[in-house]
């Protein structure tokens, strides 16, 4: 029973919080945030360890792989729009990826966080399974990265509407790239609530941002460290 | 009921494709995750009309509609880092918050500017 309790508990808590979000349609009640708080509270009250919980809850994490594959379907359905606007979409994502990696490393170093935390922050802007792989590659701690990835999305969910309003971003293309590059899969599910086009652009952005990061981070992170060291010595 | 069976069967198909993706990754020895190969494989097969949209559509919508649920267990992982969060949590939060706002600003601004430019050039509007 304990074996499968993490899985059942997560699904139950999620079902309840999702229903709650449907009535109270407000970002702070996003099921990812309310489920997290409720589950942490439950685990803490019953003195359950994360290891015990994750024995079966990790089945859900495993489903992220087929879910990533599932993005092929909306991509295929909206491919004509993507092909037509490839330049705007790809430029936005590329600029975002460079910003994500460099600002994370520069800010974290300037705040004197330890090297393993700095490197775990570097891939924080992309989807969990790929971010964990990149973290391993650049000398971070994959599990820590998984937590930073979620924090990124939670902050992103709150920040996105404000950024969109302040910058007067009206195009569905720009809203899509903003959500997908800034808040990966969780941002994408929010973008689908705005519209099918926004959601599809967001899922494409999430995938491309992950691929760009996969290539750029292993080259860029050591370069950023070298640059910082050089300037601190000066 | 039939919809559920169909959905479950299609999710199994997607799991199969992600396993195929893992296999491709292992053969090619790349750091690119298997799920990306699985995605490209499904996309290519759809494009070449080897497989049909209806074969996967229900399962895919089911997974994507419940995507947030799949992230919950990794989020709960935060409880393993209680000490780190007590000591460095505020700074980590600041890094993530500032960096996320920067990423969203630069990404959104770049795409918005370029799409406005194209709109002026071609006189077409994608939105009103």
Description of the molecule:
- The complex is a heterodimer of chains A (234) and B (128).
- Chain A has 234 residues and is an all-alpha fold.
- Helix content of chain A is 85%, strand content 0%.
- Chain A contains twelve helices and no strands.
- Chain A is globular, with a radius of gyration of 19 Å.
- By secondary structure, chain B is an all-alpha fold.
- Chain B has two domains: 1-65; 78-128, no CATH class.
- Chain B has five helices and no strands.
- The mean pLDDT of chain B is 89.
- In chain B, 79% of the residues lie in helices and 0% in strands.
- The radius of gyration of chain B is 21 Å and the shape is extended.
- Chain B has helices at 2-28, 34-47, 57-65, 67-76, 82-122.
- Chain B: InterPro entries: LrgA/CidA (IPR005538).
Features of the shown structure:
heterodimer, A: 234 residues, mainly alpha, 12 helices, B: 128 residues, 2 domains, 5 helices, 0% strand
Give the structure's gist in a few sentences:
Chain B: It holds the Pfam family LrgA. The complex is a heterodimer of chains A (234) and B (128). With 234 residues, chain A is an all-alpha fold.
Major β-sheet of chain A, in short?
none
* Distance from first to last alpha carbon of chain B: 41 Å
Helical content of chain B stands at over 70%
Q: Which oligomeric form is depicted?
A: heterodimer
Shape of chain B: extended
- Which segments of chain A are poorly predicted (pLDDT under 50) over 5 or more consecutive residues? none
Into how many domains do the coordinates of chain B divide? Answer: 2
GO cellular component, one term (chain B): plasma membrane
Protein name (chain B): CidA/LrgA family protein
Main location (chain B): membrane
Keywords (chain B): Cell membrane, Membrane, Transmembrane, Transmembrane helix
């Amino acid at each position: 029973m304990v074996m499968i309790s993490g899985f059942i508990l997560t699904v139950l808590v999620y079902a309840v919080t999702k229903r709650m979000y449907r009535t109270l349609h407000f970002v702070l009640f996003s099921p990812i945030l309310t489920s997290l708080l409720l589950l942490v509270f439950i685990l803490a009250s019953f003195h359950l360890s994360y290891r015990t919980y994750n024995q079966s809850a990790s089945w859900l994490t495993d489903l992220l792989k087929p879910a990533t594959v599932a993005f092929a379907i909306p991509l295929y359905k909206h491919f004509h729009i993507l092909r037509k606007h490839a330049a705007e979409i790809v430029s936005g994502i590329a600029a975002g990826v460079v910003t994500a990696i460099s600002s994370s490393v520069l800010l974290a170093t300037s705040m004197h966080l330890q090297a393993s935390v700095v490197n775990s922050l570097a891939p924080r802007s992309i989807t969990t399974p790929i971010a964990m792989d990149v973290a391993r590659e650049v000398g971070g701690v994959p599990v820590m990265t998984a937590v930073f990835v979620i924090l990124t999305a939670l902050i992103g969910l709150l920040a996105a509407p404000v950024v969109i309003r302040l910058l007067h971003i009206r195009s569905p293309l720009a809203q899509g790239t903003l959500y997908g590059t800034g808040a990966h899969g969780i941002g994408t599910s929010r973008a689908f609530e705005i519209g099918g086009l926004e959601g599809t652009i967001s899922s494409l952005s999430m995938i491309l941002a992950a691929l760009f990061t996969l290539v750029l981070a292993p080259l860029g992170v050591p370069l950023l460290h070298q640059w910082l060291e050089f300037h601190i010595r000066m | 009921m039939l919809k559920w069976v169909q959905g479950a069967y299609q999710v199994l198909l997607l799991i199969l494709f992600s396993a195929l993706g893992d296999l491709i990754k292992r053969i090619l020895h790349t750091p690119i995750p298997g799920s990306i190969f699985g995605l490209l494989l499904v996309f290519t097969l759809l494009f070449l009309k080897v497989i049909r949209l209806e074969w996967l559509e229900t399962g895919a919508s089911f997974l994507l509609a419940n995507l947030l649920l799949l992230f919950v267990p990794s989020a709960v992982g935060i409880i393993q880092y209680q000490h780190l969060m007590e000591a460095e949590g505020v700074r980590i939060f600041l890094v993530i918050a500032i960096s996320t706002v920067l990423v969203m600003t630069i990404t959104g601004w770049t795409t918005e500017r370029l799409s406005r430019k194209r709109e002026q050039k071609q006189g077409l509007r994608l939105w009103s």
